[in-house]
Predict the structure.
Amino acid sequence: MALTQKTPLKRTKPLKRKRFTTGKSKLQRTKDRPGSRYWRNKADRAWSLLILRKNDGRCMVCGEPAVDPHHLISRSLAATRHSLTNGIPLCRSHHSMNPRMSAHLCPLAFAEWLRTKDPTLYGWVQEHRFDLCPKPNYRKRHEQLRGILDAAGMEAESDK
């Protein structure tokens, strides 16, 4: 047996140092971070409930019962994601099904409709569509939205 050959008992990599754990569960550590997905999702649910209450729960286009809240500016922009001005209630057809007048299938026709229906809201969208938010605090946003829900006397469905 040659001496240059490694024996199977010798370590090739050093042992990893164990991390110090605080004794908190993964969920609790997530709740401690205000920018986590946990708080973002809770704020999203509260925002959806508030948007669906706009216009007496009716679609802004046709007046049918609204089932989908629609972001006028994309959800990917954290600065306006949970702004109540950034959402309108729509029926399923006008949100994503109608090829002639749908917020997702025909965005240019929808933008033209918004410009004629509500010029101030259209102006707000044009003004804020490039806003940036360096590090969103979703926990704070959730608490603000929950405060509005509580003031309106709505049930805590967003906490489910």
Summary: Strands lie at 68-71, 87-90. Residues 45 and 158 are 5 Å apart (CA to CA).
